Model the fold of this input.
Amino acid sequence: MAPGVNIITVKNGGGYEAVTGTSFAAPFVSGGAALMMEWGIVRGEDPYLYGEKVKAYLRKGARRLPGFDLWPNPLVGYGALCVRDSLPL
Done:
């Protein structure tokens, strides 16, 4: 799960506005995956990092949210995106 509600972004014509939707949550996850690939491939921490491993790392590092007992959860998946907790340091 990634933030997708009331994301502040640049407004067409100038200024800023709050927007909501999966199209605003997806860049958070894509950016997290890109940071993991930089860590693994570019920095040499996991030179054989590939899509399924990135997904597994992100699942492992997801933070569980209060009020949910079942994981993965049909509403919030594996929890909130946390790239720091996903890195096997």
